[in-house]
Design goal:
410 residues, alpha/beta, Rossmann fold, 2 domains, eight-stranded mixed β-sheet, six-stranded parallel β-sheet, 20 strands, 33% helix, globular, binds cytidine-5'-triphosphate
């Protein structure tokens, strides 16, 4: 799996730096090309000579080598297929999360546009520090792969969470990321996620419990599989691909339709509210004297259905011979819907795919507490227009997302 792959290891100044010597050997044993960049402080814990010998390459530390200056951060970033930063100190994590590039390692990270694994290791109090956690969340949202530290006896004498995770875990993650099948390369994939927010007045709204996690997992996986991704979401997220923030079903419909012509695949994973308030007050409504009030609701547009109708119209236009005009017909996107049901899942899903007219429908049971809304896990069935059904057993939402794309494009 790793043979011929270019792995760039970044080592920062923590005691766990000594463990990375073994990680280099693990990659080298599998015939990977390993290069190492260190922060100057890392060399307090491990020598340059050791790292040079193990990696069989020069080790980069200084960004501005005056005698022989070349912008090395660019060549390190260009050559590698993946970067693994281990151990990552709170200091380096903070710099990366805030775009600071004050040494070779942080400059390489800033210029790097392929997967980056970060394995933090530090004192347990530092790991729990709210700013460190904020920075970690920033990195997670930006698409970095964080290998959570483990609990146990720490080199500083404390007992707690902060130890570098096992080298096997870092190694396995490297293999996993380097073996992703780039089946979506050259394709534009548009995904919606989150529950829509339908205003009642300036401070109140109607929404639902959708966490947006399944849509975000699909978008992350599509990106890893090489797609040009647009995530249209009601949630606040930072991602290494395009994100369009929307609120209501109407906003979402506009945003998706704007992408329709240029997309190869549209996945409606959002929980779109079926109804919205008929009249939205442009002030905060006052409490009434009565014990009851009514809010009049009107139906929202069915985004998925209208996308399928657009596709249907294109098929008819092509059928009528738009090619006679010598115009290359627009290649309609594959349209995928989700089907959230709390009872009679498969029965309702089959009715829904026919009613909506989409190419695939992903059926998931939202009555189960261990999967679906808010959970990191899901279990779904992928139903195709032609009637095939593929059941995907319970797995993380990312794993389910991967299997959905493999089912559609594999
Ligand atoms: N959907 C949509 N626009 C709506 C409602 C739903 O695009 N106004 C999409 C969802 O994003 C999902 C699919 O339609 O991909 C099915 O959503 P679901 O809530 O399961 O079904 P509904 O069409 O809303 O029907 P019901 O609530 O009666 O089950």
């Amino acid at each position: 799996m790793l043979s011929g792959k270019n792995i760039l290891i970044g080592i920062t100044g923590g005691i766990a730096a000594y463990k990375i010597c073994e990680l280099i050997r693990m990659y080298k044993r599998m015939n990977a090309n390993v290069r190492v960049v260190c922060t100057p402080n890392a060399l307090n814990f491990v020598t340059k000579l050791t790292l040079q010998n193990l990696s069989q390459n020069d080790v980069g530390v200084e960004e501005f080598n005056i005698e022989q200056y070349k912008p090395e951060h660019i060549s390190y970033a260009d050559e590698a297929d993946i970067m693994v930063i281990a151990p990552a100190t709170a200091n380096t994590i903070g710099k990366i999360a805030n775009g600071i590039c004050d040494n070779l390692l942080t400059s390489v990270v800033c210029a790097f546009n392929k997967p980056i694994i970060i394995a933090p290791a530090m004192n347990c109090g530092m790991w729990e520090n709210e700013f460190v956690q904020e920075n970690i969340m920033k990195l997670v949202n930006a698409g970095f792969y964080i290998m959570e530290p483990e609990s146990g006896f720490l080199a500083c004498g404390y007992e707690g969470k902060g130890r570098l995770c096992s080298l096997d875990k870092i190694y396995d993650k490297t293999v996993e990321l380097l073996s992703v099948n780039k089946i979506l390369s050259g394709k534009k994939v548009v995904i919606t996620s989150g529950g829509t927010i339908e205003a009642i007045d300036t401070v109140r709204y109607i929404s639902n419990y959708s966490s947006g996690k399944m849509g975000a997992a699909l978008a992350d996986v599509a990106y890893e599989m090489g797609a040009d991704v647009i995530l249209i979401t009601t949630k606040d997220v930072q991602k290494p691909y395009g994100v369009v923030k929307v609120k209501s079903a109407i906003d979402m419909k506009d945003a998706v339709e704007r992408e329709y012509d240029s997309s190869d695949c549209i996945i409606m994973a959002a929980a779109v509210a079926d109804y919205r308030a008929k009249n939205i007050a442009d002030y905060k409504m006052k409490k009434s004297e009565s014990n009851e009030i009514s809010i009049e609701l009107i139906k929202n547009p069915d985004i998925l259905k209208s996308l399928c109708e657009m596709k249907q119209k294109e098929a008819v236009a092509v059928g009528k011979g738009s090619s006679v005009l010598n115009i290359e017909p627009h290649k309609s996107p594959v349209i995928v819907g989700f089907c959230a049901e709390s009872e009679n899942l498969m029965e309702n899903a089959k009715i829904k795919i026919a009613k909506k007219g989409c190419d695939y429908l992903i059926a998931n049971d939202i009555s189960r507490k261990d999967i679906g809304f808010s959970s990191d896990y899901n279990e779904v069935s992928v139903i195709s227009k032609s009637g095939t059904i593929k059941n995907l057993s319970k797995a993380t939402k990312k794993e389910i997302a991967k299997q959905i794309f493999e089912e559609i494009y594999g």
